[in-house]
């Protein structure tokens, strides 16, 4: 009466939907274009599953290349924080002091004493609470 019931195939990601790194400047990055921002642990996990890390930026040239790929008005996680030593910003990937920081005017300010992670917005950096939900930029290597 209802006709034949067919098995529904499992959803699969084709290559365009599967997150992957792309060359941006001299390194390889993944920039999230998900529908919703995610908390930092979820962003870190996305990068880890891809074999990478939340991104740190090495210089102005690299920042300019990334700025050309991101939505200017969207907030993105960077893999930089000062959780261990307030005011000393370290790359999560390399464990070294971040080589390049381009702060928004008046930043970092550690507002309310709980801004220890770093976001990229409008091409500049800002310290934010690590509990914030943002979009993700991953780097493939752990050199920076």
TrEMBL record:
List the signal peptide residues.
none
Say which domain of life the source belongs to. Answer: Eukaryota
Supply the CDD domains for this chain: CLECT (cd00037)
Q: Which organism is it from?
A: Drosophila rhopaloa (Fruit fly)
* Descriptive protein name: Mannose-binding protein C-like
- Residue ranges of every copy of the C-type lectin domain listed in the record: 24-139
- Identify the InterPro entries for this entry: C-type_lectin-like, C-type_lectin-like/link_sf, C-type_lectin/snaclec_domain, CTDL_fold
